[in-house]
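Still learning. Show one?

>
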Amino acid sequence: MMASGGQKRTRSERVAAIEMPPGRWERAWVSLHQRDVLVRIGLAIIASLVLCGVIRGWRPPFSYRLGDVPPLDISARVAFYATDPAETEAALRRAEREVRYVYVHDPKALSDLRGAVRNRLQKLLTAAKYDQLDRGVWAEFQPPAELSPPASEAELRRRFERLHEALDGDENLSRFEADLAAALAPFESRGVLDELPQKSGEGNQDEIVVFPADGSEEAKVVKVTDVLIGNGTAVQESLRAHFPSPDVADLVFNWLRPRLADVNTLALDETATQRAREAAAAGVTEVIREFKPGQTLARAGQPLTRDQTDVLRLEHEAAMAQRSVSQRLFRAAAATAMILGLFSLCGAYLHYRDRRIPVRLQSVAAVLACIVVTVIMARWTSQDPWRAEIIPLLIFGQTIAIAYRQELALLLTGVTALVVVLGLGFGLGSFVILMGVTAVAILQLNRIRNRAKLIYTGFFASIAAFILTMVVVVLEGQPVSWFALHAAALNALWTFAAGFVMTGLLPFIERYFHVLTDIKLLELCDVSHPLLQELVRRAPSTYNHSITVASLAEAAADAIRARGLLVRVGAYFHDIGKMLKPEYFIENQPPDTNRHESLIPAMSTLVIIAHIKDGADLARAHKLPEAIIDFIEQHHGTTLVEFFYGRASEQSRADPNGGEVDENSFRYPGPRPLTKEACVLMLADSCESACRSLVDPAPSRIEGLVREITKRKLDDGQFDDSSLTLHELRTVQSTLTKSLIANYHGRVKYPDQKTA
């Protein structure tokens, strides 16, 4: 054949005219130019930059913790200065030992003692002769027997005569009082103590500070040896130095000696002493120690102490301060690129395995926000002594598992754990612990039928946390010490606590992520729900139909490992729209009465299919979850209302002016079932309704009816938009057949039965 221009095309022209479908990279390039794809990529880039800022990706993290056992000696990379806690503490102790204790001096007791000795002497002087002495008073002025042997009577007589001679007369007595005051004046001035109340080593033992009680003088520093009375030798020497007669001095000292031990004119002022101690401590400056490059900071095989971790942190900060701007930029770019690469991996998984999240921009933003918040919380809770970074990771993993799928939760948890480990500077062992424990928790969350399930999940995951921590300790060559057991117990404790946290967060997760857990479904199963009660009142036969369909659909869904409980709840509410016009549906019509006889087929069809929209509106008004509303809208799909379509076709053929009937006008608005559960409900609803019309529900007839309905739905393309496979469809068909036979099996008619 000739071309339009009259010229025959050559072979090369015909080959060149063939257009091949776009390749993978071309399709990817076209997708990148779509606005919604660019928005999602932009969100991923923003989240990567935020995470880089959260983990401070421009600098290596400080990776040492209290109790870690380094396999090798840790040496300083750069020169730096650090406070020496031991030397600072020693300096503080030295300053405290030099603090003088503060005493308040009240000389009244000593002056009273001086007056008392004068009075006793005057009583002696009232005796003119030795024979007239009061022997009791005279004995007070003699030395104790344990210090010197008893004096003879002649010696005692001579002592009295010398005393009487020295003090006879007013002039001698006045001079005696003056000499006594002068002898005791130093002690009345600085005070006396029998012993120091402070312990040795707790303060200055050589000097004290003395304040007059009346505030008449300023404080003065006094030597301890000058105020300690001891055996009174200092008092005796002062008396001898001031009295002209040594005998008189000794007699006075003999009287004073036993009484001085009970005289303490100095009282310790603890408040003033504490202020002096605090002032001395405040004056002590921290001892700064210089560390040089290559100097050993921690020894291999020895657990890191608090002081060592502080020094290592200072060394790390000094090393980071010396990093150049280019080094920081390159590392930040590398960290951002790695995080973005991990997000790309998640995007590829979602593209090929689960497109529910990418379809909704809100879901993408919510998941990225959860990752960012998880990393922030993990970094904040990882500090000593809490080390609770496993809690936010567990909450994140379980939230994704509940809201979406366990596979996705495992992938996103692995990505988040890698970012956390990168930000905290931990090694492979920490990643194994974080990921392993979270995986154990996620894998238990296939069904949540009661709130205790989350606590049991936390309990079993805590056992895994303890075991994994100890395994990692052994594999990393760490000693099985108290620090290791403490870390394992701490991880187990936080893991168990996460179960209680998740129990409290579950209602909020259900609401925010629009998740229908089994717990929520069980709450919706309550037949006292206002909608179901209204359905019972207005359309009791429709209610009974819904209950029967729920039982059939749940068994069929469980047979293909779909969510049977979800199908059961969807079946309860799938026909609630019929309560607005119940008399137009055959199960609610009284015998020999049919409202549709007065309506044209098109109008009857509108009334019938209206129960879909009415049911969805009722469900939304009563705040039913969208997943349940999907069952209401999809349980008929776009199937044909065959009865009224057939009647309309007959009327059109009987009418000479009748045209062709538009089939689309007699179809339900849809959409077609989008999930396996919706497909199961569609089949269960249709089969149960059809079986009610069987006069003789024999097993073979029921089986043939179910097979016919299934084939008709399949040929009509009602299952094309779902992931239901032919094998699963056959399983559903078989399960429905068995359930319907059990419900509608024939019954034996006994010959003697009579009608009541």
About this structure: The two ends are 88 Å apart (CA to CA).
